[in-house]
Design goal:
The complex is a heterodimer of chains A (about 80) and B (about 270).
Chain A (H helix, E strand, L loop, with lengths): L2 H23 L3 H21 L3 H25 L6
Helix pairs in contact in A: 1-2, 2-3
Chain B lengths: L2 H22 L13 H10 L14 H9 L1 H21 L16 H23 L8 H18 L2 H6 L4 H29 L21 E2 L2 E2 L3 H24 L3 H10 L5
Antiparallel strand pairs in B: 1-2
The chains are: A mainly alpha (about 80), B mainly alpha (about 270).
Chain lengths: ~80, ~270
Amino acid sequence: MEVVPISIAAIAALLSVVATYLAVRSRDMLAAVVFSAVQSTAYALIYYVLMAPDIVLVYIPVSVGILPAVAVLLIKKTERYES
Amino acid sequence: MNLREAVIAVSIALMIALLAYTIGAGGLGPIAPSRLRDLAVSYLINTYNPWNITKSALSLEAVTAIVWDYRGLDTFFETSVLFVSIVGVALVFRGYREKLGLGGKGLSEIVKTSTKVLTPLILIAGISIAIHGHLTPGGGFQGGSFIAVLLVLMSVVFSLDFVIGSGLTSSKLLMLRSIGLVGVLSTSVALVVLGIALGTHAYIFQNLAREGSPLSMPTWLLDRPTGGTLIFFNLFEALAVAAGLSLAFLVLSLRESEVEEALGESEWYE
């Protein structure tokens, strides 16, 4: 494997860990949704580097488009801040 | 930052470093094996093989060929999970009717204008991913979820009133989803029906001629390969997924007064 793609995957993996930690720790649910979308973007990059373009094409719309939208709807109907 | 957070951060970093070292040293097997396994070799040879059509799918993309031809029945049940859950959503909210004029003006004029430019592009990209599923990476589910993002985007930018007012109601989406599902089903049994009519043998989910069943789907449109059933599966699957996910989003975004009306109308509230 080439050096460049594997280092892109490594950077994306580190970013996803940071985003996951922030999403879990965040008291503001709306911010947590945004952090989880960032984590999904990093994962999509990893999938692309690992030569799975089919997964990327379904992962981006579902995890960045539809899942945050449904989560935001859920937050709107319940509470925004975790007490 | 207290001690607890520091310990968590250090342990996560340590875990990543150890995992990276293990994978880099080949502890979980070689990263990119230089030798292909026999199964992979047989799929690569047979996916597009016009000289031996009884084992081929005549699709230039191996993933779609495996997903909808070699393992078509698996994929059918896999996508049924999604369709059954959409049926569940539609059943739970069955007294639900959209109402217009519940407020919501959408975002600013700049965002609206740029979204108007973007909307047809997303639609075309989704359709293109779906109908080129047997040529390039992508397929029905991918294209369908691309198109489903459209309704989410439009309801955020232009408001839900605009979406419902433009005719995308939940009953229409349910009808589109059903058309897609009927299309998938009829594509999968098309050759069986033809076989019964012609008095020959054919299988469910059969794509091209196999041993003992000479029937085959049309494989060329002008000068382009269509992969037999694959283009139909991708097209109908995209329709069903796009309409199903949009329907789920639309039904889940129901407003307070719509809920009251739905509860008042139907009998299960008693």
